[in-house]
Design a protein that fits this description.
Layout: E1 2-11, E2 17-18, E3 34-43, E4 66-67, H1 72-78, E5 82-83, E6 87-91, H2 98-109, E7 115-119, H3 124-133, E8 142-144, H4 149-159, E9 163-167, H5 184-201, E10 204-209, H6 220-226, E11 229-235, E12 240-248, E13 256-262, E14 265-268, E15 289-296, E16 299-311, E17 319-321, H7 326-339, E18 347-353, H8 365-377, E19 385-387, E20 390-391, E21 397-398, H9 403-412, E22 417-421, H10 422-428, E23 435-439, H11 442-445, E24 458-459
Parallel strand pairs: 6-10, 6-11, 7-8, 7-9, 9-10, 17-18, 19-22, 22-23, 23-24
Antiparallel strand pairs: 1-2, 1-3, 4-5, 11-12, 12-13, 13-14, 15-16, 16-18, 20-21
């Protein structure tokens, strides 16, 4: 088998390959991201073998397709548990708790089968000290401090554990890939080889991956397509952590798991109902605060939207929103200025979501508009009301999906009023005990209200 060495230039942001150096990546648009990599290829001559296709009905399926990780919130984001022979990529910032969570999973899964923790960053002594702090059973966890791909694959084939954790993907190094660990060719080749071994032997693999400065896993265009599930660790307020699914071949891709970091490790938070609402001694809301009901996977809960509007310090205005897409906030501000008469062209706007959760739904647009209006006028909104609706560019309040489920969560949280589109209010008026107030235009939302105590869909 003859091996040839080829020089390629690889984009460090997206993994795009080019035969020559480019100043700007044509795939992701990044500048000065190409680096030279030596890629070793082997010329293999394939010969015809006695093989044929099979029908799906002839493929044997394991009776136990999934098994529990022992952590309810992780099982939720994985779609009901760990799938046999699957590969999961877990990404997050350094120190956020990825290794801690995976060590806990190894401990809990070891009761039903062998587990292997492959550490390429820490020594065996360091891993043991963490396990002792977490009060885990050291006898039930096998550890391998190794970065060489060939050794790891050999151990996987020999021991055939039920679960393998690779900590981390960027430390792996294969002899057939002539580049440094952490480079795109190394990560791509090592991930593919370990995936192949895992699927051949029915081993579930968790890859721990570092994130770039933009908050994405290094080499996402290559690695994310090779694994079955991609999980992102996010840090919320205080000691809380969120796990969000961005890809899942065996379940929903919009689930989130909520954890609390303690001395004993990560503890699942099963009921996040009041998790994203800040606690106040005074029940009255301060100006610039509104509530919205969002849906994340199979969960629906109320979040608190906070807005701060100040005079612009320079000739350019600024919109800062880390948890809600900035373009959505800018569009909402433009609708308010055009259809609600608010002057925002010379104001800086700051938007936040209590609890640190990122919200991508259009259903929060009405709540964002209400919070901005409250911050500009200095008038507090009702503390027992939620705001549900999408805003059109013509200033209309449009209905959102899962209305009945959202209102049930609203009622369970003790909220008694909901502002939403007129059509949605009429359709749901007999399906909830929440007082519904229908709105046709965004200007209608901020008019003085009267006689809102009756349980009907009231237009104003």
């Amino acid at each position: 088998m003859a091996k040839t060495e080829v020089i390629r230039f690889i984009c460090s942001e997206c993994g795009h390959s080019s035969p020559k150096w480019l100043g700007r990546c044509p795939s992701c648009g990044g500048w000065n991201t190409f680096s030279e990599e030596k890629m070793v290829t082997a010329s293999k001559s394939k010969t015809a073998t006695e093989t044929s296709s099979k029908t799906l009905s002839s493929i044997p399926v394991e009776k136990e397709f999934r098994f529990s990780s022992g952590i309810s919130e992780l099982d939720r984001v994985l779609g009901g548990g760990i799938v046999h022979g699957s590969s999961v990529l877990v990404g997050g910032e350094p120190g956020i708790g990825k290794s801690t969570l995976m060590l806990q999973v190894c401990h809990l899964c070891s009761a039903r089968g062998g587990v292997l923790y492959v550490s390429g960053e820490e020594s065996a002594s360091q891993v043991r000290q963490r396990a002792e702090r977490l009060k885990l059973d050291l006898e039930r966890i096998n550890i391998l401090c190794e970065t060489h791909l060939e050794v790891i694959c050999h151990v996987m084939r020999t021991e055939k554990p039920q679960l393998v954790v690779i900590d981390s993907l960027q430390t792996l190094m294969g002899e057939d890939f002539a580049s440094v660990p952490g480079s795109v060719p190394q990560m791509r080749g090592c991930c593919l080889e370990i995936n192949t071994v895992a699927k051949q032997n029915g081993i579930s693999v968790f890859f721990i991956g570092h994130v770039t400065k933009e908050g994405t896993i290094a080499g996402p265009k290559i690695i994310e397509h090779m694994v079955d599930t991609v999980l992102y660790f996010e840090e919320a307020e205080l000691d809380n952590r969120l796990i969000r699914t961005s890809k899942n071949r065996f379940g929903a891709a919009d689930e989130i798991g909520i954890f609390e970091m303690t001395q004993s490790g990560l503890i699942p938070i099963k009921d996040p109902s009041s998790f994203f609402i800040s606690k106040r001694e005074n029940p009255e809301l301060s100006p610039g605060t509104a509530y919205a009901t969002i849906s994340e996977g199979s969960r629906t809960f109320v979040v608190e939207i906070q807005a701060l509007v100040t005079e612009a310090k320079g000739s350019y205005t600024r919109v800062f929103s880390e948890k809600i897409d900035t373009q959505r906030v800018m569009r909402t501000a433009a609708i308010l200025e055009r259809h609600a008469g608010l002057r925002l062209c010379d104001r800086d706007i700051y938007i936040n979501v209590a609890g640190g959760i990122k919200v991508n739904e259009v259903s929060v647009e009405l709540a964002v508009a209400a919070a901005i209006w409250s911050a500009v006028t200095g008038r507090s909104l009702e503390s027992n009301a939620v705001w549900l609706g999408e805003l059109s560019l013509s200033g209309e309040v449009r209905p959102v999906s899962l209305g009945e489920r959202r209102l049930k969560s609203t009622d369970d949280m003790g909220f008694t009023k909901a502002y939403l589109s007129s059509s949605m209010a009429v359709a749901l008026s007999n399906k909830t005990s929440v007082n519904l107030f229908g709105c046709k235009k965004i200007a209608d939302v901020f008019r003085q209200q009267g006689n809102r105590g009756t349980r009907i869909a009231t237009e104003f």
